[in-house]
Amino acid sequence: MFAADVLNSGMTFHTIIEPFRIHSVEPLRMTTEDQRRAAIRNAGHNLFNLHAEDVLIDLLTDSGTGAMSRDQWAGIQRGDESYAGSPSWFNFLDSVRDLFPFEHVIPTHQGRAAEKILFTAVGGTGKTVPNNTHFDTTRANVEYSGARAVDLVIAEGRDPRADHPFKGNMDLAALEAVLAAAAPGEVPLVMMTITNNSGGGQPVSMENLRATKEICARYGVPLFLDACRFAENAWFIRSREPGYADRDVRDIVREMASLADGMTMSAKKDPLGNIGGWLAMNDDALAAKCRTLLILTEGFPTYGGLAGRDLEALAQGLREATDHDYLRYRIRSTAYLGEALDKAGVPVVLPIGGHAVYLDAKSLLPHIDPLSYPGQALAVALYETGGVRGCEIGSVMFGRQPDGDEKPAAMELVRLAIPRRTYTQSHIDYVIEVCLRVAEGASGLRGLRIVDEPPALRHFTARFEPL
Ligand SMILES: *Cc1c(COP(=O)(O)O)cnc(C)c1O
Description:
By secondary structure, the protein is of the alpha/beta class. The chain folds into two domains: about 200 residues, Aspartate Aminotransferase, domain 1 (Alpha-Beta Complex), CATH 3.90.1150.10; about 250 residues, Type I PLP-dependent aspartate aminotransferase-like (Major domain) (Aspartate Aminotransferase, domain 2). About 40% of the residues lie in helices and about 10% in strands. Strands 2-8-7-6-5 form a five-stranded mixed β-sheet, with helices on both faces. The termini are far apart. Bound molecules: pyridoxal-5'-phosphate (PLP). Pyridoxal-5'-phosphate (PLP) binds next to helix 5 and helix 6.
């Protein structure tokens, strides 16, 4: 309350106060640079292959890595493990529907399970799915079904230096062109990713969402939200979009939901869970098809892929995720990291997104060819130098085409994703120092080549060798 009152009244304290104190601690293990060089060599220069204990500050992802609250842990104890109709399921359902009042809510163990079910039901050869930007697992699930995934983010969203308050927005003219050119039934649905993860954690405005819905309605195509970071997106709308400054975030979320016909969710993001997800929609026939697939692959419709205790933790997490003190701290503390790097001349995607800071490896390492993976080289250097683990989002993640060809990605980024409520400001000050040290030695970094890769989602398991 104290921090909120101070900040709300527009006063002059600049320190970002974490709106919680620490109740249970996890030790971090210190390592030397020599130990880290050996560890990353053994991991085939792929940060996903490291033992997490060899990482000091883990910014690989904000997915499922956040700290749960006292009240979420209490929910874990209350979890009811009845196979069907558990009270924990109804608590979860109420909490989801309070924000996203869709007819049908189908619980899954994480976001990609919801995607797999959805695109098994509506995808297939000859289909096209437009999105502002498909997240990697979304694209993989669309393409695995045989459908084509097209990214239609506005031009500013593809330019790391372009300044725009809603760089995640859909390019409306491009969407209209895709829908106009499509054969009847070719586009089963349009997706909107909020915030736009792969495009830099950038928000989508309510105005753009409304216009997207209007175009979809004209063509009779449903609009689905990939809503993993709905609360952060709503906070950006509240702080940047005219007319929303006095609105409660929960109302903004409900307004976003009212413009959609369904959604997929990874509850490992904004809902503050360590595991979980769901698929929701209004269409009865589609829901029946999806529930059949759910029973085949995940579980009974009142628990899906989750334990009763997980459903309780998520029900409570959803209530905390929309708290204004929390969101103010969340967005400000991410910006704190990004602004410090920007001020020191390290190229980052601007404006700073909600859940992560994206380093622009193409600008920092212009001497490394995109297909020698500048993002991967930068991520490896951050680990070797300071034990900081980030994630390449560039040609390693997106370079391999469905036809087997390799093409450079639009951007070469390294994402430093901030786990929710997990690291303090001094941890982040250390990360800033590590980034600056790596940037100073940038001209000495070399690219890598891939020596082994799987047929899909290669960034998770590929092995590299320094050039
Ligand atoms: C994380 C994420 C997913 C996939 O969710 P998982 O829980 O990791 O399977 C889908 N879309 C977006 C935008 C995401 O951030």
